[in-house]
Specification:
- The structure is a homodimer of 516-residue chains.
- The first copy, chain A, is α/β, with parallel strands linked by helices and 516 residues long.
- The first copy, chain A, folds into 3 domains: 162 residues, Thiamin diphosphate (ThDP)-binding fold, Pyr/PP domains (Rossmann fold, 3-Layer(aba) Sandwich), CATH 3.40.50.970; 131 residues, TPP-binding domain (Rossmann fold, 3-Layer(aba) Sandwich), CATH 3.40.50.1220; 175 residues, Rossmann fold.
- Chain A is 38% helix and 18% strand.
- Chain A has a 7-stranded mixed sheet with strand order 9-14-13-15-16-18-17, sandwiched between helices. Chain A has a 6-stranded parallel sheet with strand order 2-1-3-4-6-5, sandwiched between helices.
- In chain A, α2 links the parallel β1 and β2.
- In chain A, α3 packs parallel to α5 and α3 packs across α15.
- The longest helix of chain A has 15 residues.
- Chain A is globular.
- At the A-B interface, α2, β2, α4, α5 and α8 of A face α2, β2, α4, α7 and α16 of B.
Amino acid sequence: MNGADLLCETLLANDIDVCFANPGTSEMHFVAALDRQPRMRCVLGLFEGVVTGAADGYARMADKPAATLLHLGPGFANGIANLHNARRAATPIVNVVGDHATFHLPYDAPLTSDIESLARPVSHWIGRADLADNVGQRTEEAISAATRSPGQIATLILHADAAWSPTTVKTVGRAPRQVLRQPDMGRIDRAAKALRSGRRTTIIATGPALREEPLKRLDRIANTAGARLMAQQANGRIRRGSGLPVVDRVPYGVDQALEAFAETEQVILIGAKAPVGFFGYPGKPSSMLPEACEVMDLLADGEDMVAAIEALAEAVGVRPDLAARLAERRSPAMPSGRLTADAIAAVLAHHMPAEAIVCDESVSSGFGSFLMTSGAEPHDFLQLTGGAFGLGLPMSTGASVACPDRKVIGLQADGSGMYTVQALWTQAREKLDIVTVIFANRRYQILRKELENVGAGAPGENARRMLDLDNPDLDWVQIAAGMGVEAARTDTVEGFADLLASACARKGPFLIEAVI
Amino acid sequence: MNGADLLCETLLANDIDVCFANPGTSEMHFVAALDRQPRMRCVLGLFEGVVTGAADGYARMADKPAATLLHLGPGFANGIANLHNARRAATPIVNVVGDHATFHLPYDAPLTSDIESLARPVSHWIGRADLADNVGQRTEEAISAATRSPGQIATLILHADAAWSPTTVKTVGRAPRQVLRQPDMGRIDRAAKALRSGRRTTIIATGPALREEPLKRLDRIANTAGARLMAQQANGRIRRGSGLPVVDRVPYGVDQALEAFAETEQVILIGAKAPVGFFGYPGKPSSMLPEACEVMDLLADGEDMVAAIEALAEAVGVRPDLAARLAERRSPAMPSGRLTADAIAAVLAHHMPAEAIVCDESVSSGFGSFLMTSGAEPHDFLQLTGGAFGLGLPMSTGASVACPDRKVIGLQADGSGMYTVQALWTQAREKLDIVTVIFANRRYQILRKELENVGAGAPGENARRMLDLDNPDLDWVQIAAGMGVEAARTDTVEGFADLLASACARKGPFLIEAVI
């Protein structure tokens, strides 16, 4: 057994059995180790942003980390944007980043770079394995770090000689897992008191609170107390659809968010952050809450969120017979004719199969999709959490690897879709059951709106050249076909409904270029 | 005038008039400023790796920096791999990275990240403009840093409120430029003495030394002294072809490099680094030079390389009538039948038009292209300098923006081409005169060889899944067409020769999928 084998066995012993990978020469001994161990499922991404985004989507659905395999600093760098998103989603990921042999590092060979400096902004834990004998220990530390609540990014730098050298370590260790603390009753009582106070209160939740049972409990708590329940603006995963609570999100737009909280006197945060603007604007506040609004956290780091919600329900005296405000199965009226973003949402609400996993990076085109699908079949809804474009297609890919029996529906803006378009090939290679809907408005529409807000007037030549995706138009049908994914284009509601229905009825990847 | 206008005007006043861009909301006031200033040519990339790689290719050919416009930490991160390559090529680049308004930064909005930590590994200079009134000064500092010899990466972080606030600055400044020092005659004399010593000597050069006149001078120096002249393993730009010196590069392979230097007693470095292995291997040395080999630098940082070469020529008494060893126009014998990597090289040597710019990221498939084109029409040859895949297509794009009247030929491996495939769209949008040759071997061939070297035997399921690009095959003709670039596929020498000849005879982007 060499260091690379020890790494592979330690991952497997800790139930990490999927590795999203884009290896290079310095990782070749780890590739050889993976090759000796067929229990590890290796999924190739043709670009590292695909690798890290897929690891994010996978862990959101599998509730356990995947490993990634990345090639030195530059390979890691290509994966940073989606690690940024994963960090904001509190997704557990174990990155394995190859580095030169320890003896080779001082020679500053072409690929040498400062991996720690690159990793720090997106990693909760960084470690180096520089000897075969410490690979196992470091891997356990990485796994312990990644699985810390609510979910962390651990980056393990593996020197090539630590990988290829034989190890004297004979046993493969189990990484210690964090034990969540019971909720602090002082915080629970304070929140319960606030809910009974009669002041206008909003509960903002994210993370495990948005899974089915805690979410239903929270809905009853809010209902009992006359409070409002919201999800964070962006969330790793929300359970929703018919038979589940209808939960709004904090609005994206600053004006809408300010309006939403104008009357709010108290906010109870459950794993969530107090709402702030996505960007700062001249003359507008950064916090979306009124100055006098009181903010309290229901739990501290390391406390058990589900237990805290249970305790809160008890403290506010949720009556078990209280009717929850659950969505009924309903679909918005079906429009017809020319396709629009909202028409896509309406068609989705009709045709989405039960237990679909919706991966949303539809950006400005998708604001309606969330609203209109609240009464669709029960589903999980996964969002772009860090604002870094290029998560959508990889996230769909990883979610489908985690849940091969569920239909994944990717809602994908065209502009952001191009960032990591290589994910389509992995979807084809792995025969994943994913329908991708490209909202093809052929521009960075969200930036067009922001330019308007700047007061720059009608965009001129340079602005149009930077914000429009036309001249030439992207042909998503050919791009997808070139990577092995069957695809079709439509610009009518009827055409879209037909394509979506047939794509949902079959298995395997399919892409719909929805021209809006 | 606001801070954004001041930035734009300062760039223009310092002859930086091309901006490769992928902006976001925080850069919207800079976009508006660019929109008010049509002298700035804005070139959109649909992914930031395209933006930075294009800036690299542009500056290598324009001999002046381009600006890039990138969106906060995650947008910058997407550009890091090609900035790594640019740093290794000593290419001057001025990155403008938007950041939140200063007052918004403490709120840790979703896109907030540690830009400095991300920028440090690839930037020689990092600065923040946090007030409209210091934008001009910071921009000048960035330009001064970028243009320092031999070429540097400067990263200017522009807060949104510094961009949108009015400035009291009325004049736009010229950035002080570094004045190169005259060569140190002590170093020149030492090198001249070494060349006269009769010991086996290799001159290894890169940077400005590989332009036409200094290169011819170096060739005569080597010829006079009976020394060997080589270029670094990877170089930003080499002038070559008929009528120019035939210059080998330091071999990529460790065994080949060790053999090449086995008898070498002295090495004179001209801007180059002493040769080291691209990677470290078990039981193999990191330095490619024999232990007893003496290494000397012809010049120190900040000294004038061209003047140093002149001084060396004088010191070794180069006779003006000495025949230089210049390549004659010749083409290797034309093969026929099934297409191979070497057959592609032979066809290139026949059909490359004079003054072509060859952008090479053909990786293992292209080892023959360099050798066989030494007697082709005169051309510039641009290489992957930092080993980070994904430079080729963007570099072609930027080189063509810099030199619209020259044919750019991209030699592109299929695996590395997928990293930044979005560059094809920019080639179509800008109607750039680029022929891209995809070496479609449908695998990471270089890694296949490395796996063999590891002694892992025949690859099994997991290794094949990580190293082969098949199942499905990539269809480059459809991928290119999907982004607006006309394309064709061939797997015969005759077919390739026909396609290349016709692509060279017309203007505009064209892609040849050369199945080998």
